[in-house]
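Lab notebook page, bench 4
Experiment: in silico fold of construct C2
Operator: M.H.
Input chain length: 369 residues
Purpose: comparison with the prior construct
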Amino acid sequence: MSWTEADEPRSARWRAESGAPAPKRAMVADDRITADAAYRLASEGTALLWRGDFQNARQLLQAIARRIDRKPRKAAASPIEAFNFYRQVQSQRARTLGMLLVPLEADYSIPLRRAPNVKEACTEAYGAGEAPSVVSLRELLGVIGAHEWRKNGVEVPALGDRIHPHYGVFSPVRGEYVGLVAEAPLPSSKLAFDIGTGTGVLAAVLAKRGVKHVIATERDPRALACARQNIARLGLAGRVEGVEADLFPEGRAPLIVCNPPWLPARANSPIERAVYDPESRMLLGFLNGLAAHLEPGGEGWLILSDLAEHLGLRSREALLAALDAAGLNIVGRMDAKPTHPRAADAADPLHAARAAEVTSLWRLAARNL
């Protein structure tokens, strides 16, 4: 990105994991700017390249967020309208908060007063540093937070251990879907495929349950590296194999598990790809390829929330029709209610849908096999 500073043209590499373009307008700002002025400029599309105290920048970001959140919400006439309003607000919020920028040196040091050491966190997220760059403070704080998640891990009761998510890889903080995989009756302990493994948590659960060989597939290099590291840390490398693949590996298995993104909508950033599945591509890809990869008598486990149904994004009839069109029969189903705090938060704009949500493990079999 380019800007003018001390009457001289300047430029640096622009970083944005979301793929957002570099701001067209940018000005230098420091501790003297007020929160109201910063909010107005950011809302108008002017980026603020920070040259003041780092901790003051964090406080300013929080002040801008409070001003955004004070704006009244539109009343929604239907669940899908509420969802669309929610997505629109979240997108605008992210765009405005993304206008407060901080500089990074080539070695990821921050040339600001009271700045933390973020070299390790940035190297994990971005790879080796090459040149000075500029990043939104909001993204940088996400990188720092992801580093802490990676370092400390997430407790997974079904494993009796921790999973350590990497930056950009969805964390298994919602335990209900993991619990379902831990409890469903195994059709075989010989071999299983885990499709779209992410952190590797479901592959690890299957191995801990006694499945002798698990092939965990993933097309995202970050997620595959994360899964392999978690599997190695858990001492399961001899039983779980991480494979780069778009959905299925070669061959057939008596058990194939998939936890696809639950909402058929467009993802606005890489991390959202674990939640949003445009046009249900992964869901339908899994269902339509399942019969061809199941051994006779085998089962496919589809782990899916019905949140999309409560939001009006997909109907139960459409899901059942997709199962039928793929040549699949329903052997059984296990359900779990959500336990995350948002399900009980009446102030959440999607509270009605979240409160009614059920996560299911659908046990599927290929027809005529």
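Observations: The two ends are 58 Å apart (CA to CA). Residues 64 and 249 are 47 Å apart (CA to CA).
Next step: discuss at group meeting.
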